[in-house]
Structures are given as structure tokens and as C-alpha cells.
Amino acid sequence: MSMQASALEHFRQGSEELRAGSVDRALAHFRAAHRIDPGSAQHRSFYGLTLGLAERRWEQALELCRSAARDEFFDPVHYHNLARLHLAFGFKAEAIRLLRRGLMIDPDNGEIVDALRNLGVRRRPPLKFLRRQNTLNRVLGKVLERARMPRSDLEPEPSPTL
After folding, report:
1. What is the span of the domain harbouring residue 54?
2. d(Cα 157, Cα 45) in Å, to the nearest integer?
3. Which tens digits make up the pLDDT trace of 43-57?
């Protein structure tokens, strides 16, 4: 097996382990792939992500992911990995910014769309000069949300006949 094929095999196995939720095993595979082919931005990005998730090494993980995003700025996967890393360390606002940046590159990227949906990104308050918790903002927000709903959601369901 050539070194390139070996790096690709480690990457494939690491991806499977990461999807299965086994971050430690994924880290071992991504580390091996990165050592074999350190020039690959894809390997660097996933190695950085799992390094941060498994060993909590923020600075090194962040540098690996950022350098991959700089090298392949056109690949939304790198922004998704950066966002996942920021979320793991509690930086939600930056993660949302990175996810939106990834969507600018590929608006149909399902993983990024799902990640944003799962984060529950809020809309801006109706009256920006008032705090979100202000009663007027809360009531106006509820009224506007109801106005945005399709009519079928507002109609009651028919009662079952016995």
C-alpha cells in the first residue's frame, strides 16, 4: 500500500469513527493521516478538530483548522470544523459566524444547515433599541411570528370522529 493510499485509508477510518462518536479513535486515525500527508488541508482540518475535542488542546487545534481554512478557503468543510471546535470550547457567536461563512460558499451544504438549525439561531428583536427581554419586544415578536406562520398552522386540527 502506498503512503498516499495509507493516508486516505486513515482519513476514511477516522471519518467513520468521528461519525460514530468515537473521538479518541478518530483522533488516532486523523493523526496518522496528518503525519503521512501533512500538506493535505483536509487531514489537517479534521486532525485539528479531533485534537481539540479529544485532548482539549485549543491553541494547537485552532491553528491546524485555521491553516486548513486559509489553504482551501473555498471548502465549506473547513469552516464547519472550525465552528464545531468553537462550539466545543463555548464560543457560540463565532461558531455561528463561521457556519454562515461556510454557507456563503455552499448554500446547499446539509451539515452546515443542520448545525445552524440545531443551534437555534434567534432572529433580531423587532425593536433593536430595546433589550430583547423588554415586554414590548416580546409581545411584538410573538405577533410578528404568528403573522409569518402559514395559514394551515393556525387552523385547528379536525377532531377525530368516533
Report:
1. 3-121
2. 48
3. 999 999 999 999 999
